Amino acid sequence: MDDIFLNPFSDMYAFTGSSGNNDTSSSNTNEDPPKKRKKEAWESESAFGTFNKPPKLMAIEDYSRWATKFEDWLMAFAFPSWKSMKNGYTEEKENGAALRSAEEIENFVAEQKCVALLFQSVQEDIISLIDYSNAKDLWDKLGKKCIGSKEIVKNKRKLLRKEFDLFGCLKNESVCKMIERFGHLKLELVRHEIKFSDEDLVDKLFDSLPDEADWRYYALMLKNTIAPEI
Q1: In whole angstroms, what is the distance from residue 74 CA to residue 95 CA?
Q2: Which of 43, 71, 88, 202 could serve as 136's disulfide partner, Cβ 3.0–4.6 Å?
Q3: Rg of the chain over CA atoms, in angstroms?
Q4: Quick check: helix, strand or coil at residue 99?
Q5: What pTM does this model have?
Q6: Cα separation of 119 and 85, whole Å?
């Protein structure tokens, strides 16, 4: 049995997209500690933001998690801009030089800052081609681009449920590849807010394993990943 057993219910495996390759040539255990710490700091900054920088959206599939973090960051550090993004910019004047009252200037600055923060936070190839009229319009269209319309989301959920029901090991597919594919499916289910119990997930993967006796031990291990009900 050449395949290495991988647990797709491990948070580290499921959310990093790792294929479970244990090849020591790809290991970063010998990475220079200062470089490693710098890399970890950059990844944390990108994911959660800092006082001066909002969290970044680097891939469309991460939109749902990023959107929540971005809104929380905006409310905490740029509340007027958050209001502009949620309620829309109601002023008709597009030329800042024509503004007179302090309230008009404040609303205009909040609107422009929100647009700038969105462009700063989102990968250029995701947001650059969106045509928008204000920050709220940009925010709404970004969501539709990343997630789709309600009808598209509804159809996507149907397809994912069907994919889960029919999931199984493909012809000539290794168990490692099958488990990796199941991990990606699990991520898509979470992204589209489709919930299955841990027992259902384990049973589905258990039923997809080859019938060889060698895999019975690993199937039992998967079964034992479910915490006992109290």
Answers
A1: 24
A2: 88
A3: 23
A4: coil
A5: 0.53
A6: 13
